[in-house]
C-alpha cells in the first residue's frame, strides 16, 4: 500500500515537472527568447508555476488585488499568461482563475524586462 502511494506521488511529480517544462517552452515561444535556466527569474517562475499547479490540484483559492493593474500595465505578459493557462487547463482539466493568470503575468513581465 505504501509503495502504491509513493508511486502515485512520483507519477504526479513527473507529470507536473513535464507540465512546468511545457509551460516554460510556451513562454519562450511567445516572448521569442530563451530563458536562462540558471537565472533567478527562471527559478522564481518555475517555483511559482509549481505552487500554482499545486493550488489548482487542491482547489485552493487565490486572490489578487493587483489584477486590474496587471491587465492594464502588462498587456502582452497577461496575454501570454492566458496562453500558459490554456496549457494548464488542457493538462489538468481545471480552470485557472484569472487571479492566478495575473500572478503568472508578473513573472512573464519580469522575463520580458530582463531578457
TrEMBL record:
It holds the Pfam family PRD. The keyword Repressor does not apply. Residues 11-115 form the PRD domain. The keyword Repeat applies. InterPro entries: BglG_antiterminators, PRD, PRD_sf. One of its GO terms (biological process) is regulation of DNA-templated transcription. Gene3D superfamilies: 1.20.58.1950, 1.20.890.100. Keywords: Repeat. PANTHER family: CRYPTIC BETA-GLUCOSIDE BGL OPERON ANTITERMINATOR (PTHR30185), PROTEIN GLCT (PTHR30185:SF16). This is PRD domain-containing protein. The lineage of its organism: Bacteria, Bacillati, Bacillota, Clostridia, Thermoanaerobacterales.
Amino acid at each position: 500500500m505504501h509503495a502504491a502511494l509513493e508511486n502515485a506521488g512520483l507519477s504526479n511529480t513527473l507529470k507536473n515537472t513535464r507540465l512546468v517544462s511545457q509551460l516554460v517552452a510556451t513562454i519562450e515561444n511567445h516572448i521569442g527568447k530563451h530563458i536562462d535556466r540558471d537565472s533567478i527569474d527562471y527559478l522564481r517562475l518555475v517555483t511559482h508555476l509549481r505552487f500554482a499547479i499545486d493550488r489548482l490540484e487542491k482547489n485552493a483559492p487565490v486572490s489578487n488585488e493587483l489584477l486590474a493593474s496587471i491587465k492594464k500595465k502588462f498587456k502582452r505578459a497577461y496575454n501570454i499568461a492566458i496562453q500558459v493557462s490554456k496549457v494548464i487547463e488542457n493538462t489538468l482539466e481545471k480552470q485557472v482563475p484569472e487571479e492566478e493568470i495575473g500572478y503568472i503575468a508578473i513573472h512573464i513581465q519580469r522575463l520580458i524586462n530582463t531578457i
